[in-house]
Amino acid sequence: MTIKKAHSVLKQYFGYDSFRPQQEEIISEVLSGRDTVVLMPTGGGKSICYQVPAIVSDGIAIVVSPLIALMQDQVEGLLGNGVRAAFINSSQSGQENTQILHRAVDGELDILYVSPEKILSQEFAPMLSQLDISLFAVDEAHCISSWGHDFRPEYTKLAFLKEKFPKIPMIALTATADKVTRRDIEDKLGLINPARFIASFDRPNLSLRVEPGRNRIKVITDWVLARPSQSGIIYCLSRKSTEQVAAKLKEKGIMTGFYHAGMGPPFRTKVQQDFIRDDIQVICATIAFGMGIDKSNIRWVIHYNLPKNLEGYYQEIGRAGRDGVESETLLFYSYGDVIQLQGFIEDSGQPEIGMQKLERMQQYANAKICRRRVLLGYFSEYPQEDCGNCDICHDPPETIDGTILAQKALSAMARLKESVGMNILIDVLRGSSRRDITQMGYHKIKTYGAGADLPRRDWQEYLLQMLDQGLFEIAYDQGSSLKLTDLGREVLTAQRPVELVRRTLPKKRQAANPKKSDKVGDKPVDEPLFKRLKALRKKIADKKGIPPYIVFHDSTLKQMATQFPANQTQMRNISGIGERKLALYGDRFIHEILQFLQETGKEDSSNTPESEKKSSKGNRSQVVSGHRLRSGHSTMDEEKGKAFWERNKPTENKKRKKVPKEKKPPTQLLTYQLHKEGKSVDQICWIRNLKENTIYGHLISIYLNGEKEIDIFNFLAVEELKEILEAIRDRG
Ligand code: ADP
Ligand code: MG
Ligand code: ZN
Description:
Elements: H1 2-14, H2 21-31, E1 36-39, H3 47-56, E2 60-64, H4 68-80, E3 85-88, H5 94-105, E4 111-114, H6 116-119, E5 133-138, H7 153-156, H8 159-164, E6 170-174, H9 179-189, E7 195-198, E8 206-207, E9 210-212, H10 216-225, E10 231-235, H11 239-251, E11 256-259, H12 265-276, E12 282-285, E13 298-303, H13 310-317, E14 327-333, H14 335-346, H15 351-365, H16 371-378, H17 391-394, E15 399-401, H18 403-415, H19 422-429, H20 435-439, H21 456-468, E16 472-475, E17 481-484, H22 486-492, E18 499-501, H23 505-511, E19 519-520, E20 523-524, H24 527-544, H25 548-551, H26 554-563, H27 568-572, H28 579-599, H29 609-614, E21 621-624, E22 627-630, H30 636-648, H31 651-658, H32 667-676, H33 681-688, H34 692-705, H35 718-731
Parallel strand pairs: 1-6, 1-7, 2-4, 2-5, 3-4, 5-6, 8-14, 9-14, 10-12, 10-13, 11-12, 13-14
Antiparallel strand pairs: 15-18, 16-17, 19-20, 21-22
Helix pairs in contact: 1-3, 2-3, 14-15, 15-16, 18-19, 18-22, 19-21, 24-26, 24-28, 32-34
The structure holds adenosine-5'-diphosphate, magnesium ion and zinc ion.
Magnesium ion binds next to loops.
């Protein structure tokens, strides 16, 4: 009954037809009064997990959230959907906060966001017992762990909530939690026998791409110019480069801002606001930027420099495409960045761990197999297939054995006493008879002319690859002369082979262009209409003083621009339009669409009938001002979303539907199902609250009795198996 109510709340307020499967599970646990821990990637949909129960339940939900900007954003979104929400934090006067508290006591609010400082404060904490609290939600719960990257000491004091109100369910949510942090969250919040959920960390709508860190400014300006009016973030390592890159983009007439911790708070707030409201298109920022924003229509993220680990990288690219629409990411990789980062890490508290993490980051950047597999592998997820949405999948690199090439170059470098720059080195390799070469006697060295068979441009490319691989360095303080590294010496003495990627520059450039035609499902988005709808959205947002994505997500506008809803019923079927938004904006958008159809003469040449014919469910088609549409179907975006979540759906759920309620699946089977979903043993232990030995015990006995398939090489390296077999042979 309550879960049914949750479904109707989802539709009525948020305009979504279905839960992402784990959401429904999570919500039923919370509604049943149980404590819950949720791990979901950025943009996975954590908020719904407490917002829906908050609306369904009587009383008020208290949400603890670490950042003021984030709170404002969430409350704005909720108000826009007609939910009775407010926040209490230091951005408001004491009087305003008191007023809100009164409304809470009077039962006029369903959701109240509170900063951790305020909830612990003298004014607020005693008031809690006067409220009829339905649940506590602790967002960004990793902030509780001093091991994590974002420790907030106030969070540790939140333990008093469970102590004082043990019966009120608490849900803790985070996108980043390793083993230690997970345990910290439960212990420090004092959760009682919590239900635990880990969603897949895959974000299939983000494309992944890595390019060598050269001509970055040129590549970036081309990139931005090819994506007019698409919001994006460029992450830079230094404050100075945020300003430099921003200046370059501004020169090209692109609305750009920069953001770093060295700016005064008012400036930072202003830039952030401008970005959120689509008044500037691009923001160049250090990693200080981003945690506080839920802007859903960020279409791309570029890393100007290599991040220092994959956690940070994933968090940062995760800010793109929260609305589920296809979004792009680009990482520039250069060996120079590695050196610089190594310097930082050496000076830090835990250099060993830092170096290991940097190495994993490098492996990702150098990957020759599907990048998503490398990335997810880092988070202990092992997809069985290539993603089809990364540069490697699109354009597998063709590698060549570059050992001889490298040896020629490195040998020349050594014989020239590491005193020349790249241009002269190439001249010598190609046997140039230029005067300055012969004058210096460079034509007498053994490798003079050893690389005459390769054009100059190829040598440039391969030398840069060798530089990226750390075979030599450029001494900028000594006239940019090239110096061998230890690695380079190993190559020279034939102790180490070198792999190079065949030069394929023209192809690469092409691939970096945005996708030509945008689609929702298999139907093309009408770009001119999408543009008009965006303009209308911006007008409405500015008038109300709210960010455009609070009016409608990009995904919602894109659906309008494929389905041309022409009346309220059809509008209601667009994902992301709840009752309140329908009432507020429905007519204006319908009007805009009809006008567009009329002006462009598209009224009759609708592109829907074909898909209508295909629809076997016999949906009623309607004729509206000559424009035919079908109703009562779920939208393609949702279907895509469903397919994604279907993959992550615990098979446990499916099972439950078949098995009569009181019969639980046997414990081994539960373990097996989680294993099949790709969860690691470590994760299964956590979810099931069982010991590692027990889980291995389950898997072993399933393997032995042979009724289900388990790939033993998930657990065992071939080498280990060999050793075992040898031991058996030796000892019987
Ligand atoms: P996070 O996990 O990072 O907190 P959010 O809660 O901000 O993610 O959700 C990310 C996006 O997904 C939001 O735009 C939200 O509206 C959307 N979303 C969440 N649940 C659903 C759903 N069941 N159907 C469609 N969109 C959803
Ligand atoms: Mg969130
Ligand atoms: Zn891939």
